Structure formats: C-alpha cells, structure tokens
Amino acid sequence: MQAIVMSGPGDPSVLELGELPTPAPAAHEILIKVAAAGVNRADLLQRQGHYPPPPGASETIGLEVSGHVAEIGDEVTGWTVGDACVALLAGGGYAEYVVVPAGQVVPAPPGIDLLVAGGVIEVAATVWSNLDRVWLASGEVFLVHGGAGGIGSFAIPYAKHLGATVITTAGSAEKLDYCRSLGADHAFSYREDWPAAVRDALDGQGVDVILDNMGAKYLEPHVDLLALNGRLVVIGMQGGTKGQLNLAKLLAKRGWVTAATLRSRPTEEKAAICRAVVHSIWPLLADGEIQPPEHQVFPLAEASAAHQRMEAGEHTGKIILQVD
Ligand SMILES: NC(=O)c1ccc[n+]([C@@H]2O[C@H](COP(=O)([O-])OP(=O)(O)OC[C@H]3O[C@@H](n4cnc5c(N)ncnc54)[C@H](OP(=O)(O)O)[C@@H]3O)[C@@H](O)[C@H]2O)c1
Question: What is the pLDDT of residue 264?
Fold first, then answer.
C-alpha cells in the first residue's frame, strides 16, 4: 500500500510517499481503507522525533482517519465490510490502509462528508473527554487558546452548546473573526496583553474552566485568572513543560490543575471515549448545532506541504490529507 514514510526525524521534507506492507487485522481489530486522514499538531512533534508512538503502535504518522471497513478480525462483531467509519488511532493514519482496535472505530458522523469526517474524531474526543473531566457546566466561563486551530475551532461551538461563556485567543485579525463566527463571546489577540483583556471582559469575575494548549508559558496567568473552584486542564505544551505553580493562589481559589493526553490511554479508555463521542457529539453534528472545523485538503502525497502549512501557523481549523 502507499503510505507516508520518513527518511528520518527532521523538517517536513523527511515525509515522502512510499510503499509499506498492507497490515492484516488481528482478531480484535478492523482493517480500514482510508478515505482521509486528519493532520494534528502532535504529528509534527512525531516527525521531529519528539513524540514516539506508544509501544505496539504503527510507526507511521497519523492519529485519525475516515474510511470504509475493508476486513474484520475474527472476534469483532457489529460491522460489515464497506461500512463508512472513522477511527481514533495511536498511529498509522497517513496510509491507504490502517488496522485499529475495534473499540476505536465508530460509524462516520451522519450527514458529514467522509473527507471532512477524517478530521473530526481527534478533536471531538479530546475536547469531549477533557471538558467532561473538568465538568464544564452551563453558565460557566470557559477559555480556550488558539480558537482558530483544530482543537479551538471544535471547543468553541461545543462549549457554547454546553451553555458556557466562551473566551478565546488567536494570532491574527482574520482568525479572531473566525473565532467570533464560531460563537466565541470574546476573542483576543495572544500577541497582546490577553490576560488583561480577559480580566476587563469579565469585570473581575474569574474563568471557571481553561482548556490549555500552551502549558508552562501560561501557567502563571492561568492560575491568576481562575475563578473560585476554577479548573485548568492542560492538553498541550506549545509553551514548554516546566513552569512555576503558585500553590498559595491555587489553594486560596480551591482550584484544580490537571493534564491529560489521549494517545497513550489504554484501548478500553479510548473505546469508552469514542462511544461517548458518538452518543454526545454525532447528534450535534447531524442536526447542524455544531459544524466540523473549517478545513484545507492536501493529497496524501503532499503530507510534507501540509506539515509546512501547520508549522507556519497558516491553517484555520483542520488540515486533512485526502487518501482515497
Ligand atoms: N492532550 C491531548 O490528548 C491532545 C489532543 C489533541 C491536541 N492536543 C494539543 O492541543 C494543541 C492544539 O492542537 P491542534 O491539533 O489543534 O493544533 P493547531 O491546529 O496547530 O492549533 C494550535 C493553536 O495554537 C495557537 N497558538 C500558537 N501560539 C499561541 C500562543 N502564544 N498563545 C495562544 N495560542 C497560540 C494557534 O493559534 P493561531 O493559529 O491563531 O496562531 C493555533 O490555533 C497542541 O498543543 C496539541 O498537541 C492535545
């Protein structure tokens, strides 16, 4: 099969179209003929050699796909060859075929083009699972950075659906407009004094939940901004891994700081999250209450150009590789 192979860790030019053996499904797995693969920021880290796949996972990059069931493992029930599906992967998505534990394969979201669906499950599963962990509730104030990125462009409408007041940041005027079009109540440039802008907008009230893609760089302002009983959930470390946590401030606010990653979770946990996404998110996509993120499409063979675009911060929403 055709797949993106790497000549070594490095810049996007290490990604090339090559040939790999088509994998065969084990008894608990499904073989998917891939239609589209979502590009995620973690893919860039893997390409650079900083984010190796978990033990046993494919070395090929790619954390999510859409496609059709091509072959079914002996112990798997409930699927028919040809069914349209999407899958959350530990790796292997940038290829014509991928094998996936059956629990991480779910029916494609109804009413969504299969190409677009290739970029939905990773953001849906990440946002749903983390906002569930910190129980974001109606009437609360929610902050997510990078509102025009993959995670942000899904988190904004989902948090609005939950009834939150949504604050976000972005790096350009066009992207701030896009965030507002998604329903953000307040959108501020992260190139300016965004903590002051958030404080002004809230008139002294704190932020109840922060979904944080930046990590260390924003730890201090985030703890400062938290409301009483506020929750900070770190999912990305674009701003580094080691910061100073002022425990006295956290204690006075009875605050929570937590962090989580999806990729290394056991299959059973990922399967439970996938089921929850089908139950909670697919109906919202089907009735149009949430739109999939805006997307840009590259052919699989141009994975290198797709990485360049994401690395330069030039994309809005998701980047999708068309495979089939
Ligand atoms: N823990 C998990 O399970 C999990 C799962 C998925 C993703 N993630 C993480 O979530 C983050 C976003 O992933 P993604 O795939 O959505 O990537 P993405 O589409 O590239 O989004 C990255 C976002 O970061 C924003 N950004 C860049 N510099 C910033 C700054 N100084 N302050 C605030 N925002 C800034 C960008 O904003 P502009 O485009 O406006 O410049 C962009 O929207 C990554 O760190 C990724 O590793 C974690």
Answer: 87
Q: What is the C-alpha to C-alpha distance for residues 114 and 309, in angstroms, rounded to an integer?
A: 22
What pLDDT digit, counting tens, does each position of 160-188 carry?
999 999 999 999 999 999 999 999 999 99
Strand-pairing partners, residue 2, are 19
- Spell out the domain ranges in the chain: 2-120+263-322, 124-259
Point out which residues pair with 16 in neighbouring strands: 5
User: Within the chain, which residues score under 70 in pLDDT?
Assistant: none
36 CB near ligand 1 (under 6 Å): no
From the list 234, 262, 237, the residue with the least C-alpha distance to 126 is 262
Distance CA 221, CA 217 (A): 9
Q: Is the CB of 170 under 6 A from ligand 1?
A: yes
DSSP string computed for 299-313: EGGGHHHHHHHHHTT
User: Nearest CA to 67 among 42, 99, 24?
Assistant: 99
Asked whether 236 lines ligand 1 (CB < 6 A), one says yes
CATH top-level class of 124-259: alpha beta
The strand pairing partners of 135, in sequence order, are none
Class of 2-120+263-322 per CATH? alpha beta
Paired sense of beta strands 226-234 and 165-170, if any: unpaired
